[in-house]
Amino acid sequence: MNEPDVFAERYTASERLRLLLLYGGLIAAFVVGIKVWVAPWLHFYFDHTDCLTPESSSAAIFWAGFFVGIPIFGSLVVAVVTVRQGLAVLAEGRYPPSGRKALWRTRVLYGPAASIRGTLLVLAPYLFLLIAVAGALQFSQEAISPRSSQEAACQQDRQAFFLMR
User: Which of 80, 63, 86 is nearest to 128 (CA)?
Assistant: First the structure.
């Protein structure tokens, strides 16, 4: 005879609204920060891609941040969110661990299915670290020097940009 399905405890409507507002506020702050601090520099960078090469300091910072920094930051964020829960799942042999609430109707898993989920939660940050290693290899291969006829014009553009700020 089949046992009835067991479901994890769910957040109440007020708790879900509170979480939605909290995470929505964090995302909004992140988007505003990107638009205020990153977007102007990024627009300048893309307008002057022939001047800014991986050897120039500002371009090197951009490419290192893009190929290495963002994946490492993503790895840290994913680690904070998933590793603790994954370790609890592996220790308890149950997904989701007892005492954890779910946002939607979630069937409780036991045994190998729970162990697989817990292992995937623990290993998730390593995917981003692999992307960072691949990005570092890509960044090290990006070595194109500017043509010397453009260097004077590019230098004037860089000075104008930094004086504008």
Answer: 80
Burial class (CB in 10 A: 0-12, 13-18, 19+), 157: middle
Q: What are the angstrom distances between the C-alpha of 45 and each of 98, 151, 159?
A: 50, 15, 13
Residue 95: strand, helix, or coil? strand
> What's the mean per-residue pLDDT of the chain?
81
> At residue 49, does pLDDT exceed 70?
no
Do 86 and 125 contact (CB within 8 A), yes or no? no
Which two structure tokens, joined as six digits, stand for 154?
Answer: 């590019």
Amino acid (1-letter code) at residue 136: A
Look at the chain and count its residues.
165
> Do 134 and 34 touch, CB atoms closer than 8 A?
no
- Look at residue 150 and tell me whether its pLDDT is greater than 80: no
Task: Measure CA 7 to chain center.
Answer: 30
Q: What is the pLDDT of residue 145?
A: 43
Phi, psi of 53 (to 5 degrees): -115, 170
Paired with 110 in beta bridges are 94
User: Tens digits of per-residue pLDDT, 1-32?
Assistant: 456 788 888 999 999 999 999 999 999 999 99
